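INFO  loader      accepted 1 record
INFO  loader      residues=145
INFO  predictor   begin
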Amino acid sequence: MKKSRVVSATRFIPAAPEVIFDLLADPREHARFDGSGTLQEVQRAPARLFKGATFTMGMKIGRRYHTKNTVVVFEENRAIAWHHFAQFVWRYDLVPAEGGTTLTESFDYSKPWGRLIERFGWPERNRVNMEATLRRIEEVVTSPS
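INFO  predictor   done
INFO  writer      dumping tokens
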């Protein structure tokens, strides 16, 4: 049996899917809710993402670098996903629920070279960071403007 190379975190957020999706679809907001501390700023992006859109983020893990991402899923108010050069996929699924939205963030590292990042403990670290990201998304969308 093939080992799953997807990690995820799920959280109920007391906000409408539209509100959460608008935040996710705006790359200028990504560093604001990132729970890993690695996203620094948007360097190049459209104001709102769409399927096939590319966007470049300034990153920092030890030293600064950037990643160019391509949106591979864009289902308004339901799902959004992108991948970077290594083809690892970051995805958000939004499910309407009474009083809000169940939001799941997942990281799919199923490409053959995904085995390499397991050696460094990245999948588990990413899961912990995703939990922090979901908390931050909740803070952003539920705090008074």
